[in-house]
Task: inverse folding
């Protein structure tokens, strides 16, 4: 049995890098208990040693952040993340990929490993991993794959605003102006800074008359998308 009095560290919705070490926390990850007291950490290690993926993942976070131990140990963190990752634990796959991507492990194959595990996490529905894969495909001029991943990241249950803005820029480059306006409005609604700035510019400097119909169509489609998204959220909350 695990200790009943753990110190709980909640990290739901925290985007960015955990403590600056390159272990990203997916926005759709659940709250996880992290144990600072020896009894709780000992029990967690036992669960991890028995092969429980959730415990292996949590222990990896302990090592990555240095919780309950003297200092962060990225190699140990990667080892435990990988044990959980090979069992299909999506958050562990994403954190393992992030560690490889950060360069903290210092291996020759880290870039390839990062892409592999980001791909696994993306396929398992981690929105930030989907955005990462979209970015990788975009860099490699794989436009069809980039659009697929960006749409998944932009339209999921926990949409990534940067993916929405990236979609806007992709469609702008493709001269699909309706979709450019649509995704700019959507990204702005999710508070993406660059999209917000662009929308504010349109308020001061309206689009040319020749573009007005495209702009209006894009805004209408964005409003429909956002209304549908809000309805889904309300429906989900009403069932809880």
Result:
């Amino acid at each position: 049995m695990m200790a009943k009095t753990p110190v709980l560290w909640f990290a739901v919705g925290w985007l960015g890098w955990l403590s600056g070490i390159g272990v990203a926390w997916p926005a759709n990850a659940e709250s996880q208990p992290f144990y600072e007291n020896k009894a709780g950490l000992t029990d967690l290690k036992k669960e991890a040693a028995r092969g429980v993926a959730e415990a292996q993942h949590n222990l990896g976070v302990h090592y990555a952040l240095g919780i309950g131990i003297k200092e962060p140990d990225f190699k140990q963190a990667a080892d435990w993340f990988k044990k959980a990752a090979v069992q299909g634990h999506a958050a562990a796959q994403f954190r393992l990929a992030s560690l490889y991507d950060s360069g903290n492990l210092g291996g020759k194959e880290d870039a390839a490993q990062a892409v592999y595990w980001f791909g696994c996490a993306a396929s398992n529905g981690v929105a930030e991993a989907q955005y990462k894969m979209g970015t990788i495909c975009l860099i490699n001029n794989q436009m069809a794959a980039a659009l697929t991943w960006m749409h998944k990241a932009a339209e999921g249950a926990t949409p990534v605003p940067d993916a929405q803005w990236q979609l806007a820029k992709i469609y702008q480059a493709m001269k699909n102006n309706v979709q450019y306006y649509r995704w700019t409005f959507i990204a702005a609604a999710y508070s993406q800074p660059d999209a917000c700035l662009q929308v504010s510019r349109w308020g001061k400097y309206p689009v040319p008359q020749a573009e007005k119909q495209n702009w209006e169509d894009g805004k209408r489609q964005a409003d429909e998308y956002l209304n549908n998204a809000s309805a889904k959220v309300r429906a989900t909350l009403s069932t809880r």
About this structure: DSSP finds eleven helices and no strands in the chain. The two ends are 29 Å apart (CA to CA). Confidence is low (pLDDT under 50) at residues 1-23, 25-31.
